[in-house]
Amino acid sequence: MGPEGRRVIRAEVERAANGLRVAGHALYLEPRGRPPLGFLAHARGARPVLPERAVATAATVKLLEAAQPRALRRTAALPAAYGQRFSLGSLELTLHPAGHVLGSAQLRCEADGLDLLYAGDIGGKGPTASLTAEPREDPEADVLALRALYGHPRYVFPPREQALEQAGAFVDRCKRDGKTPVLVAVALGAAQDLVKWLGDRGLVLRLHPTAHRACEAYAAQGISLKNFVELGEPGDAVLVPPTARIDRLKLGPHRTCAFSGRALAEKEIFFSGGAGEVDEAVALSDHAGFDELLDFALRSHARRVLCIDGHADDLARELRRRGVEALVVREHHQLSLPGF
Fold first, then answer.
1. For residues 194 and 189, what is the distance between their CA atoms, to the nearest angstrom?
2. pLDDT (tens digit, 9 = 90+) per residue, 91-138?
3. In angstroms, how far is CA 312 from the centroid of its own chain?
4. Is 0.90 topped by the overall pTM?
5. 17 Cβ contact partners less than 8 Å away, ≥ 6 residues apart
6. Is it true that domain 160-282 has CATH number 3.20.20?
7. What's the alpha-carbon Rg for the chain, to the nearest Å?
8. So where are the chain's domains?
9. Residues with Cβ < 8 Å from 215, sequence gap 6 or more?
């Protein structure tokens, strides 16, 4: 028992100097800074400093080459294929598709007394699955560490086709009214699904450089994308990331539509960097929603689930209601434990 009468439980994932780490081992999970060894679950939001050695899929490495070439040159990439078990130090590791963005992966870590599945950012499955990422697998494990970005019950996403049809309808309305349609979406993930859906229907998207580089990297790895051009070329609609300064693009009369899971929670969506308030918002996310996170955790048959970040408290509460031991991993090495 701790000093306040709390039971002390040693979690399989712990907070350390550079973020999350497999407890008792050298491997960091999506670390900050430059630890000796880290696992990169995907290429979205890659930091300018990477681990000295980085485990990732080959697709993630290719996307990092497009987005963070300098950072990648300073790390020793250790590309791994899905489903192939390999040894790294004291751990046996296996990568499984996460369904989030191209190359995204879950990591299974095995050692004496350890069977841990780290599912950082997982995508949807079936009706909510990405059009341009590998289909998600649902592995079983003794312990599951699951990020809970959308772990609140309000986040139940519509079928992906429905959200993409809304994108097409938005473009049609803008063109009919003589205004430039501006789609605001993350440059890696949602952008490629929008390009895939709209491009296959004959619409040409003018892409911000970050989204354009990512689409080129997708196409180079065999993902069928067409009808996308650079921002300065003619086209039917403009696509920019949330950080873009739309007021600097000199688009003339235009309307903006944001594509984000946050559309289910906020009437008005605001973005950093100057995109400001948008005219419309569509619930299109590359992350699994609350119902999918819950189902994923239950299908893992894990005896313990470590809920990380986001709406971890809400997800853990519902898992405990279902009879699963669920803990919330917090900063400063603390765990939120039920009933203690």
1. 9
2. 999 999 999 999 999 999 999 999 999 999 999 999 999 999 999 999
3. 16
4. yes
5. 33, 35
6. no
7. 21
8. 13-155+287-336, 160-282
9. 191, 192, 195, 207, 225, 228
